[in-house]
Design goal:
alpha+beta, elongated, four-stranded mixed sheet, 32% helix
């Protein structure tokens, strides 16, 4: 396993439009684990050690892989799985046109300093998925996506990863019920964590006792050199990066029975993935008061209730790391199976957060973000890191009399209108809580979220915080399981935020 590098896009199976034999019939209920039809987990093939296969060889390798997964996981497959290989060009053609993100989504990711105010988040997500998806599983069908070539090649780890998703679907189901970004990442941490942990155990058997297909090393590509949004990638990638360690912790402390239970009682926060000893644990509920004037309208859901979002520890870490506030290699302190490490003193104390968005008279957007922390010291540590994040994006403190939020001192900063994160930002720390308000200008704070004792603010030129102009439509994933893939997940991009 590489350390400190991005799981790069590689050629996995390279043959356009290849479909292998498939039967939906159930496997024999009386068979032994590790024996599927004519194939057994301890079979050796003449083509072992190769990565270029014929269709017949790939079929044999697939059934042997399923038998081996049964032995490792101690669970049987109920029935067959279809395997299809498509080119990346075909994959892109399958994706429908992508619409722009909502004003709420764009303000959310801008407020977290992940996607700037000049960029639509759906297009950033599509860039990630379109270039990096290596495969996916959906409804008894494994699809491997590859760059076009004249040969049939296979990446052992990706094949096993997707077959684990098939086993999960047959034994537990892949439905997800998370209502926030953080909860959805956490749920996926069980699915993707297991689908990365089982191939890790599989590889150990290949090194010790099994004859296996070749597993060519992936080219080392530094994460900072990637053309896509690194902060957004780290947010999306946490189920793949910290999920395996989470599942490993469950397996080592409670056996596969503990992993089985986690499918029924999935974690609700990425904090549990990053710190498995905290599982199970629900986030702190935030009581955020709406103090806005009629000039600014709070975004609501379909039932007229305030629309809220939870950003979570993993996305906070990704934002701070991508901007250099957390200044260390991404793998420093990491452990196998995947050595990415999302733990840092600035974010370790996260206990909960709630993000709300407001729309102004000229379609500008603003936000109020309340974050709960495990202690006063944790709150101060994050506030200091957030100030560094502002400074990294050109923010300057605004001079003037001190203001208070329920007795807590506030700091106010302004980012110049020429910057893509332009606007005014107010930070208040009160015990174990941090409250952040982002607005086009300082004088908007009084209308969005006024505080006791706040002085009259100077009138400043308003930053342009309207939604980005529509970009040329690009494609979105259509109908793929968000759990699938050994690279960034193949979720439909607009559903992420």
């Amino acid at each position: 396993m590489r350390r400190g590098t991005l799981l790069a896009v590689v050629a996995l199976v390279v043959l356009s439009g290849c479909t292998l034999p498939y039967s939906p019939d159930r496997f024999d209920d009386d068979r032994e684990l590790g024996q599927i039809g004519d194939y057994a987990y301890d079979d050796s093939f003449a083509f072992d050690g190769e990565d270029r296969l014929t269709k017949a060889q790939l079929e044999a390798a697939t059934y042997r892989s399923m038998a081996r997964i049964e032995v490792i996981r101690g669970l049987p497959f109920d029935h067959d799985v279809e395997l299809e290989v498509i080119s990346r060009e075909e994959y892109r053609e399958q994706r429908g046109e992508l619409s722009n993100a909502s004003a709420f989504q764009n303000e959310l990711w801008r407020g977290a300093f992940v996607v700037d105010g000049e960029t639509d988040v759906n297009h950033e997500l599509d860039d990630l998925y379109g270039d990096s998806v290596q495969g996916y599983y959906s409804s008894d069908r494994v699809v491997l996506v590859t760059d076009e070539s004249d040969e049939l090649r296979i990446d052992r780890g990706t094949l096993v990863h997707e077959l684990v998703h098939a086993l999960q679907d047959q034994r537990f189901g892949l439905e997800r019920h998370g209502e926030t970004i953080d909860e959805r990442r956490a749920e996926n941490g069980v699915l993707e964590g297991e689908a990365n942990y089982v191939p890790y155990l599989y590889d150990q058997r290949c090194e010790a006792e099994w004859d296996c297909l070749a597993d060519p090393p992936e080219p080392a590509t530094e994460i900072a050199e990637q053309p896509f949004n690194v902060g957004l990638f780290l947010s999306i990638y946490v189920p793949y990066a910290e999920g395996p360690s989470f599942v490993s912790h469950l397996h080592e402390t409670g056996g596969w029975e503990a992993v089985d239970r986690a499918h029924d009682e999935r974690p609700t926060t990425t904090s549990e993935l990053i710190h498995p000893e905290r599982y199970p644990h629900d986030p702190v509920e935030i009581a955020l008061e709406d103090r806005s004037s009629e000039e600014w309208e709070l975004e609501t859901d379909g039932d007229g209730e305030p629309r809220t979002e939870t950003v979570g520890e993993a996305t906070l870490f990704g934002s701070l790391w991508a901007d250099g506030v957390i200044d260390r290699p991404i793998d420093e302190g990491g452990t196998e199976p995947v050595t990415y490490n999302y733990s840092d003193p600035a974010t370790d104390g996260w206990a909960g957060d709630e993000f709300r968005v407001y729309e102004g008279p000229d379609n500008e957007t603003a936000h109020v973000w309340s974050l709960a922390w495990g202690s006063d010291a944790d709150a101060e540590a994050f506030a200091d890191a957030y100030r560094d994040l502002l400074a990294a994006n050109g923010a300057e403190p605004v001079d003037g009399p001190d203001a208070t939020v329920d007795g807590a001192d506030t700091d106010t900063y302004l980012i110049d209108d020429e910057d893509p994160f332009a606007g005014a930002y107010r930070i208040a720390v009160d015990g174990d809580r941090v409250e952040i308000v982002g607005a086009p200008a300082v004088d908007d704070f009084e209308s969005i979220h006024p505080v006791e004792g706040e002085p009259a603010a100077p009138t400043l030129e308003r930053a342009d915080r309207t939604a980005p102009a529509p970009a040329t439509p690009v494609s979105a994933t259509a109908g793929n399981s968000p759990s699938a893939g050994s690279g960034p997940p193949t979720a439909t991009a607009p559903a992420d935020g």
